[in-house]
Every structure is written in C-alpha cells, then in structure tokens.
Amino acid sequence: MANPDENSSLFLIFILTMLALPLVPYTILRLVRSVTEKKKTIHCRCSECARSGKYRKSIFKRISNFSTCTNLTILLLWVVMVILIYYIKLLSRESQPFEPFSILGLEPGASESEIKKSYRRLSVLYHPDKNPDPEAHKYFVEFIAKAYQALTDPVSRENYEKYGHPDGRQGFQMGIALPQFLLNIDGASGGILLLGIVGICILLPLMIAVIYLSRSSKYTGNYVMHHTLYTYFNCIKPSLAPNKVMEVFIKAQEYMEMPVLRTDEEPLQKLFVAVRSELNLDMKNIRTEQAKFWKQHPPLVKMELLIQAHLTRESLDLPPALLKDYKHMLELAPRLLEELMKMAVLPRNAHGHGWLRPAIGVIELSQSIIQAVPLSARKSVGANSEGSAAFLQLPHFNESTIKKISRKKIRTFQEFREMSASDRAELLTHTVGLSPAESQDVELVLEMIPTVTVEVTCETEGEEGIQEGDVVTMYAWVSVHRANGLTGAHPHAPYFPFQKEENFWLLLADSTANSVWLSQKVSFMDEATAITAASKAIQDTKEALGATVKEINLAVREAIEKVKSGSRLIMGKFQAPGEGTYALTSYCLCDTWIGCDTKSNVKLKVMKRSRAGTRSAYALEEGPVATVAEEGIEEEEEEEEEDLDDYESEYSEDEEEEEKNSKKGKGKAVNGSVNRKGETQSESDGSGTEE
Fold first, then answer.
1. φ, ψ of residue 650 in degrees (nearest 5)
2. Assign residue 170 a region: left if phi > 0, alpha if psi is -120 to 50, beta otherwise?
3. Taking the CB of residue 367, how many other CB atoms lie within 10 A of it?
4. What is the value of pTM for the model shown?
5. What is the dihedral sign for C-alpha 269, 307, 329, 58?
C-alpha cells in the first residue's frame, strides 16, 4: 500500500476529476451562449415603461442578474477546484522522487571530485554541528547524506543506475483514493470502502434518477404541469366564448397550489368590490350571484380577483402578501396561455382540425393581460365596433381621453394610427389636453406597434391543382413593419412587471365551421434562426421538385433577403378535403398588442381525384394523431351534445351548403394566394357571441 500522503493526494485528485468533468464543459457552454446570444434590449422608451423599472440596468440589477443561484454555484465550484489544485501541487512537491544529482546541485554524470566538493559545501550549511535547526538536520540525514552515499558507494550507485533508488528494487505500491481518516479505523476499512462504492455507484445515480423522473413526470418541457394540460384539454370546448376563456385559464394546477390564507380574506373582499363590474355577475340578482361566486374553490376566487385587479389596474393597493402571489401569477401567465392556445388548436376530429373560437379567446386574453386592459373594453360602444381596448394600451389614455377623440370623428384605432404625426400631435395637445412630452410618448408607442401582412399560397408539390386526398403544402410569408424601422421588439407593457417577447400565431381556419386547419407560432426576435429555417425549407422543396443548383441558390438568396427585410416563412401540410370550394381565412394574431391582428381570405378549390397519390401515405402519417384526439374526447361527446345545440344549429346551414358545393365542384384547382394588408380584427369578426 502507498503511504498516507499518497493516499490523501489520490483522493484529492479523484475529487478534482469528478468535479472538473461536468463543471468545465458546462462553464464553456454557458460562456459560449452568453457570447453568441443576441441581447434583446429593443424595447419601448416611453416614460411609463421607463418608470416601470423592468428595463433599467443599474449596477445593482446587473449584480442581481449575475448573482443567480446557478452562477454563484459555478463560481464556488471553481474556487474549490483552484484550492484543490494548489493543495495537490503542495503534496506533490513534498513527495518528489529521489534525485541525488539534483539534491547535491549537480548535473547528471558529474565527476567524483565535483560530488565531494558539493557535499562539503552543503555540509557547511546543513550539518548538525554547523546548523542546530532540526529541519536542517533532517534534510541533511535523509537527503544530502543519502545522495552522497548513492553517488560514492559503488553498490548504492549501481542500484541507483539500475533501479532508480540507492536501496535497490522498490516494492510495487498501490494507493486508494480515500481520505486517510477513513483508512485509520481498525477493521472498518473494508466496510467503509463497500459503503462508498454502494453510495457513489448505486445510491447516488439512483437518487438523481428518482428526482429527475419525479420532476419530469410532473412538468412538461415548457415547465407547465401535466395536470394543467389535462385540465385545459378537458375544459376547452368548441363553443367556448372568448369571455369564458378566463374561467378555463385560472384552473391551472400552478394556480390551484397557491395558498389562500386567512389574512387574505379582507383584502380579497375589498378587491371584489373594486372589480365586481368585470366579473360578469347579474346585477339584478347580485346577492345570489355574489354568494355563488364566493362558494367557488378558494384558489379560483383568489386568482380571478388578482387577474381582474391587474386588468383594471387596481393592483397598486394590494397588500404585500397578495402582491407576491400577484407577481407569481403574472410570471406564469405567458407560458400557461401558450399551452392553453396549443390545447385550443390541437387536432380534435378525424380531419385533424382544432377549434377557432377558443383560440381567438386565448389570444384576446393574452393581449389583455400583457396590456392590462379589461375584457369589457373590447365590447362595441356606439359607432366604435372595436371598443376602447386598443386605445387603452397607449400611454396616458383613459376613457375620457377616448371620448374626446371620438368627438373629432376618430372612431377606430386604425383611423387614429393612419393620421399624420402633426395632426395627431395637434389632436392630443389641443383637444385631449396632453402635454408635448405625453404626446411624444404616444408617438413612440405607435411607432412600436407592428403592421402585419400575410401572403398565403396552398399547393400540391409537383402537381397541377389540388385533388381529394392530396398532401397540400401551405407557404405563408408573414411580414412585420414598424414606423421606427425595427423588426423584433419588446412591446409597450408598463403594467406587466416582466419582460415579454411579442409572438404571433398564424392560423389557417374555416371560420364558418369553427375549425383550425393549421397553426404555427411566429417570432421575429431571432433573425439567424429564421434565415436557417427558411433556407433549409426552400432548398428541400426545390430539390424535391428537381430544380437545378442555380435555381436553388437563387431561391435561397431571395428567401434570405425576405427574412432580413422583416419576413418569416411558415410552412405546413394538411390533407386536402373532399371535392369542393372552401372559403378559408388566414388569421395572424399577436399575443401582446391589441389592434394589430390581421385576417385575409384564402380560396381553396379541391378537384375530384383522378390520379394515384398520397392519400394513403398521409393517412398513415396523420392517423395516430387523430386517433389520440378522438380517444381523448370520446367519453365527453354525449355530455357535449346538449351544450352544443346552439352551436350546431348556428353552423348546420353552412355544413349543408358545403355538402352541396362538394357535389357541384368541378374543374381545375384554384390555389389561394393572398397579399392583403390586414384589417384590424374586430370582436364581431373572430369572437362571436357567447353560446
């Protein structure tokens, strides 16, 4: 066995190795990400957003951004590694191999006279008669005298030259990478080694696996609980009105686990009085409605009141306990709304279509939460069919401001945006009464609001026209233009306490049948990723069609230029339905801004099948998805029949007309190709009324 110092050194080397294996690559990965990641600092610069503080980069905020648990842990582990390296280096110095020439300060092969001369010189310094220091005596006996003997005694010199040591051949030594105090326990070394092997090789990996599996079984990749997705899937209905989406949204398991304390009762009562008009209560029977509201599950009551407090901008008076839950609720809201949107457009029928009406409701709720605008503000008032929601997202705007503007025949938000800057400034300063600085804030926000255009084309790759059962490819170029020239930016949202990227949802839908054929989330923040995706999509498509290399390169260059100019390519596939002409609608909905949603018509003509094709292949690919969706709702079909009587009667005539058209439809396919600057979507276009 090795000596104790060597065992301790081996143990430290083992710890250092196990620490460095994950730490070094993880640190390099984080550094590479921090260097290559594009800093998203493009945000609104109005005075309200500046006062919100979420974009402020003070020294304390920078320190707090760095001093996260992960960064501090990495820094601490690197400090431990440096200490281990320094200590191992000290131990290695103490256990240097025996080198007599270097001990005597000579070069290898020195003569005997040089050896004696060096020995006499060192004796003057370290001999006990000359130097009374005990350390000098020890060094003289163990090193200097031994080195002199090894080089002057014939036997010792022969042993050194042959075996590297003056005492001859040395025994083979083995060390154990364990601390010395564990090996000093009499009779217990074997048990400790066994426990160490079992703990490190079996129990530790098993514990990590159990923690990982328990967490992964509870959360999805988007850090949303599986129970939340199950609840959303079962609560989303095709006839769900937009003003009822809130009731589904607050049933998330993350919200249900928030505690309701006794100290919350009084502030919640006050909050109820402040937001009562937004709770859709029957004011004629207010006592019964109020009692019914408070009989709900306490977390449901708390979450709905907190969200309504945010929408009505009554959150400033919340007590500290509720304020903490309020911020946590808003922090979770974006990803919960994204999952709720996915549940709304999830294929639910044999054709693989989702539901349009609840999807629009989710987007409207997301816009209201980000902009802190009440849902009631979307209701049409007089000549303004869009309501006042879009105006309320502007800084320094309120209901009285909107009334003053309406007197000048400015009825819609689009009309207000289309005014010239000088006319708008005169209106805001002279008619509304805003100061020049406040008017400038309005201009800054209007410059941030995007104008969205969509070009949609549907075709069967490599074929002329679209026939029944074909795999139809949708190509959509979504373009964003802003008055300030930016492409991607953070929205104006001074009342939302966290940074939120703006995202768009492109839906290809049949509004009469309340069905979503295709859906895709679109982001304009990462241009490099968009260029890569568009280039690959165009290249694969052209190669499949047998295009030449020159044609492929030209098409790829055109796509890259489009992306750099503020466009994103969206592709999707769906199976062509039965013969007939279908009036589809492409919706481009923003999850942060109110009033910039667009929709455009897409006419799809499907001919009777006359060629062998991809029907069976597509059915094989898409079949399992439809089967899963059908199994998920099979048990609920009977319960939904009574609830959907009105919904079915609303669309029954349209379905009969579609069947007639499918019998009459003949001729060549007309592919929908649209390039319309979207009109602002009103509630009557997408929302409908509550069934």
1. -65, -40
2. beta
3. 26
4. 0.69
5. negative
